[in-house]
Amino acid sequence: MADYGYIRVSSRDQNEDRQILALAELGISAENIFTDKQSGKDFNRPQWSALVSVIGSGDVLFVKSIDRLGRNYDEIISQWRGLIAKGVDIVVLDMPLLDTRRGRDLMGTFLSDIVLQVLSFVAENERSNIRSRQAEGIAAARMRGTRFGRQPMERPADFQAIVKRWNRGDLSASDAACELGVCRKTFKRWANLE
Q1: Domain at 15, CATH number
Q2: 25 and 73 in one domain?
Q3: pLDDT tens-digit readout, 51-72
Q4: With left for phi above 0 and alpha for psi between -120 and 50, is residue 145 left, alpha or beta?
Q5: Structure confidence at residue 142 as a pLDDT band (50, 70, 90)
Q6: Domain residues for 31?
Q7: Of 10, 39, 112, 132, which residue is the catalytic one?
Q8: Is residue 10 among the annotated active site residues?
């Protein structure tokens, strides 16, 4: 029997310190803490898979909050039930009602299941809201004139003279591109717009 911890952040630049501290305070050893830096949309995560392969009957899994498990309602429920079926206890630190070590009677199991379903729904709903807010933010930025992506390159001052030399056959497209400091494809695109 061992204690394990699972940590997830959605991207590489997010900080997992808050979750690490919470698990460290419980005395969980570093080698038993599994961390993924990936979206919670599904459970196709390398460290989650590694954790599930080693955790077993009598072990306890600690997570800071239900959304750290994931943000897909059906998959959270499925993974939760799969771990319980293996004999693993699960503790969600931010939600004391989600501690399978307590209340193993019918009422405790029932309450835990209801809380799990509600919180899993909320986690998935938040993921949907995040996507919606991102789309709204992008649309608002575009309406303000914000451009996304790489800025278009400005044509050098001597562009017209080089195009004339290229049109006369004095330069190849590759040589013209080299003189302008761009790739051949960019030169051809620019020249074709003239």
Answers
A1: 3.40.50.1390
A2: yes
A3: 999 999 999 999 998 888 887 7
A4: left
A5: confident
A6: 3-140
A7: 10
A8: yes
Would the pTM count as exceeding 0.85? no
Residue 151 DSSP one-character state: P
Q: How many domains does the chain have?
A: 2
Nearest Cα to Cα of residue 70 among 47, 87, 54, 86: 47
Tell whether 136 is covered by a domain: yes
Query: Which one, of 117, 127, 106, 109, lies nearest residue 39 by Cα?
Result: 127
Specify whether 41 is located in the same domain as 134. yes
Q: State how far the Cα of 22 lies from the Cα of 110, in Å rounded to an integer.
A: 27
118, 176: one domain: no
Question: Considering just the CA atoms, what is the radius of gyration of the chain in Å?
Answer: 28
pLDDT, one tens digit per residue, over 82-134 is 998 899 989 989 887 778 887 665 555 566 666 666 666 666 667 677 778 78
